[in-house]
Amino acid sequence: MQAFRAELSAQWRLAVPVVLAQLGMMAMGVVDSAMVGHLDSGAQTALAAAGLGNQVLWVGGSFAFGLLSALDPILSQALGARDERGLRLGLQRGFLVAVLAWFVVALPCLVAAPVFRWFGQDPAVIPLAAEYAYISLLGFPFFLGFVVLRLCFTALQRMRPILWAVLIGNLLNVLLNWVLIYGELGAPALGVAGSAWASNLARLGMLAILLAFARSEIGHLLRPIEREVFAPGPLLRTLRIGVPLGLQQAFEVGIFGLAFLLVGRFGSVPQAGHLIAINLASLTFMVPLGVANAGAVRTGRFVGQGDAAAVRQACRATLVLALGFMSLSALAFALLPRQLASVYTEDAAVIAMAAVFLPIAGAFQLFDGMQVAVLGLLRGIGETFVPMLINFIGYWAISLPVGLYLAFRTDLGARGIWWGLTVGLFSVAVIVALRLRQRLRGELRRIRIEG
Asked: Which of 92, 212, 227, 429 is most buried, judging by how many CB atoms fall within 10 Å of its CB?
């Protein structure tokens, strides 16, 4: 019990700044939606367009983020094994993987408009949403570079640079949104497109700040550039870890993106209400996601050290922290749906729709927190392929057909999509928990990239 308390305390100290960084990055999207939702005219259309454009951006963006998450076990296990060269090669190769990842992000963005039309989205929303996606694509390389450095600083448990970058990036985003959305300080009023340009500039600022810290704190890892970074064998082994993580992320984000499109078939008001509810659910999700990232770092280090008992203690601590928070957020969604929705808009119809969705979101909070925590732990020990398969089955073979049936074959309407998501999250949470239990009973080995 004493060992568990010590691990819980150590993981809490790491998790808090990780969570703050995750919340800071998520806050940029919340601010974008809230400020677009308060346009004087066409607020419903603008809110739906920003959400739809962001969804298509993150179909590829989620894969890219998952691909780069291969650095979690690579860097943390190298640290645990005191392998500085492996750490340097992993970080430098991460930037190469980021370049490849951007091309994946570009694919869905470039076909956004015809895809929106095929899914029967509101004609007034389509051009605004497509423009948002095109503009956001231009600034996404800045975000991917930021992610590579963030993963390295997190593995080193040096969170101060990340927190400064996220804080300043959010302040920039608020200021630039105010200027570019509404046309303040003599700038043109760009509306939804202004929000995309503001996010691009804020992401550039975040990358610049982390690079400034990196020069002084981890400069020895960034230079000189190792020739082996470009060796095809280790690069392919890195991709072998990262591609399942990318697909895992894409399957999850993709089902939520599809849910957004399906809700759009019921009109722009349900879609705007859905966006608010999903945005709030995504905001609370950042906490267990941050805890999962901390858990991945801790378990990765212990795997590198060859300490199986410490790995198990870290797993228990991660689950306690993630499930504890999501219990509180589920309660808030159930008791305060209208109050939470009114932060985003003053439109009574949109608030009413969001208030319908939020209690259902509260129902899946525990399952969502559990599945992301367990997936982080599996990533820390180096397992990525089986969790990818579980995600695909849970979301696309279970959640989607259940949601379609409930939405279009019963009187639930758009609520049926939400209950389908709940069933999918429950399925994934249970199956990955069983997989983690199985892995912890076996031998845990450090993954090998070089040589």
From this structure: 429
